[in-house]
Write the structure tokens for this entry.
Amino acid sequence: MKKPKLLWLQSITCNGNTHSFLNHPELFSILSHFELLYHPVLETAHSLEDLNAKRLTCDILILEGSFKKNGVKKLGIEVLDVVEYYAKEAKHIITAGTCATFGGMFKTYDPENISGFCYDEEEQTSRYEMYASKLISLPGCPIHPKWLSYVLMMLVYDKKIPLDTMHRPQELYNITVHTGCSRNEYFEWKVDTKGFGLKEGCLFYEQGCQGPYTRGSCNKILWNDVSSKTIVGTPCFGCTEPTFPKTALFSTKTNMGIPAKMPLGVPRRAYLTATGIAKSFKIKRFEERIITYED
Amino acid sequence: MKIKQLIEKIEGEAELDFTFKNGKIEDVQINFGFYRGIEDILVGKDPRDALVITPRVCGICNHAHLLASVRALENGYENSGIKVKISSKANDIREFTLACELIQNHTKWFYMTILPQLEKLLKEQSGENYALKASYLSSKITKALAIFAGQWPHSSYAVPGGVTCDPTYVDVMQAQSLIDESIRFFEQIITKVPFEEYLAQDSLNSLHEIGGDFGRVLYLMGMNNMAQMGYSYDRFIVFGTCMFSQPGKSMATTVSNVDVSYVEETLQKGSVAKAVNYKQKLYEVGPLARAMVAKEPLIKSLHKRYKDSLITRVFARVHEIALLLDYSKNLLNNLVLDEPSCTLPNEIPLTEFEGVGVVEAARGSLIHKTSVKEGKIENYEIIVPTQWNLSNGNVQEKGIASKAMIGSLTTHEAEFIFKAFDVCSVCTTQ
Amino acid sequence: MKIADKKALKRESIIQVSLQLFSSHGFHRTTIPDIAKKLGMSVGNLYNYFSSKDVLAKEIIKYTSEVLGDEIRAVNMLEISSKDKIEKIVTIYFTMAKEKPEMIEYFLRVYLSHREVFKDGCEGMTCVSGFITEIMIFFDDGVSSGELRNQDFFSAFGLFMGYLGGMVFLKGEEILPHSLDDYIEDISRNIYAALKSE
């Protein structure tokens, strides 16, 4: 059986998704299922020139980076022109990263003219109609390598991937970054962490953590197989969401002390009632440091 | 005769315009195409947002950008009278994670650029998938980094006053075994020399004992005259304090002080990349520069015979992997966990300050300058190492990398010399 | 009528009667037998609904909190300005103080003044959450629309509720010359002036 042809094209990007994927522990076993036509750093049989000359055909197109209608050229040819050529005949289009999916970081340079491939933040672009039927959105800044390998392997085994209304795989994005965070107990009992640098305490109330309302698997499929932002005390910045990046990322926006944004799907009254009750109790274990080092 | 060549897979692309005369390269102009605007994106933002935005300059050296931006903030606070005292624990953790990123960078450059390109140039293809080795070591070393920093790429775990993590010995031991694994890889695959023995080398005489993939590269380069090509101006500069050196510049072997306030950026015609100079002169940055300024014995020895040739430059970068692995191991051994991770509160009541942060990134000195007014970033400058090495120079003096390519007979050979500088296109076009 | 509904009604009438007796005779002097007698039910039967006087005390505060909370929730749902909402909330509070004085009195003279009764099972704001949640929502809406100034919750809460509670207390002590209704306009204006954004 012929291997599906895989093409990885870049537009306005930092290469973060490329390097994240390169970290996959089973990278080459996964790639062995494909004929890799072009990739930003791995050796491939074809060059950028071959790509631009539109001499190739591809089955699966991976896009990295945000898009501008014109003004982004390689070898004198508009990148978007080349991308759309391959997008038309590809059987599957995967937008890898928040830039390619929603616009992301590089959209903020020129918000009027730069967007994701099929989405401009939450709005559909003019390209959506044409490519929606074969689109898989993998937002993240960058993506986790196993999110991409999951999609690729599902395609190899010809399995249907359950997608949500924005074409994101439900199995990856229907939970929040909050799911599985090592600080969950502190969230449950509303114990803030004061400042940074402690493993104790929740980062949601003051340090700007967007985990409870950000779709992603970061605390379930750990980063680099071992960690995550919130595990090491860094707040989640909501990088998988169409709104990334927001501003004042290290502070929680509150209205009279009430978080401006509620956990995903949780009504305000429910959250405030539960919070009020939890806050009324002082659980000794959660007020203490977990480990004591003797001199 | 003029030839245009697009160089790919250098963290993006660059266009080289070669001018040949009498069969040799007489001049090279290096141009970059698309400006992505991170410096502009930063304007108007909360000063701490730089910790999230600047890593997005680059997918392979984002951690260096994070550290440069946090140092710029801390420097800014200090300039405004706030005392910033980072615990030795936080400092060591930052040094450790930075070292991991450098090791990852050099490894990828070695296995995904240098080895395959050299084999191709010399028609000595071994057929081995070197990228597999790069991916293996990279995923191990970035895992060690992620234990403290949360993730790689794009961590933002360094904040003013220290770091956000609060590791336990479980974390430290896990990181320690990952470093040990990486050292074993260096010993058994890269050099086929026991690590302690490798580090003990201090003269050229022991170099022929290096086997493995590094030995292969040295052999191929030696047999093909590469000790006689790639010479530049033999001028080096280092602005960051790193594991074994203080900032300084080295004109051949004469070392003197530097002051980052004399660094100047200028626009270049035909390229979105800015040129950069120090007191109107161009300098090389990177592992060779660091070794020269630090007077590292083995590199000094190599330089004595081969000057700043291609072989010295390549050697210095691979050699730095060993130094960094040793450094990382020591940092973990000496890590004191019972110290505060972060000594500043989250909110600092400062609405106006200016600061400079310098880091020795994989490819050389990285400088961030932040200027804050009314609580928002008014101006932000990022000067990356590749700008130093790839500035086009002028009529009087060619650029560092350009000079190294002058005299080459083919564009393929020039391309290899070019890539020995470890170019990062995305950084240069931020 | 279903048994469950009958029980709910009975429960409510116990609470109403208790409130009246606490108001007229004082909290400590009123006993469970007193309440049972007034209702014409056996003491044993009353204990089926509330297992002790302390439990009854806590359930009453939750009940009054819900009643007040429901009325404020109705105001929060209206599409009117925070300024107009303030006036409506003040009106609700003062109307309740006029028509069901035993409820507000219970809050001021029993809940706030006998903390030892409530310390187990009514920690912090657990038992008044019905009411507190609605005030939080009122503030959240006001700040996110830009009409109210963003500040610490308790500073704003203390100003609003402390003011209203104080006025009702003064009325109860028969110090205020006029009926509470007469003060609604000025008090609403003062509260708005203090909370609005600059």
Observations:
- Chain B has one domain: 2-428.
- The mean pLDDT of chain B is 94.
- Chain B has 15 helices and 13 strands.
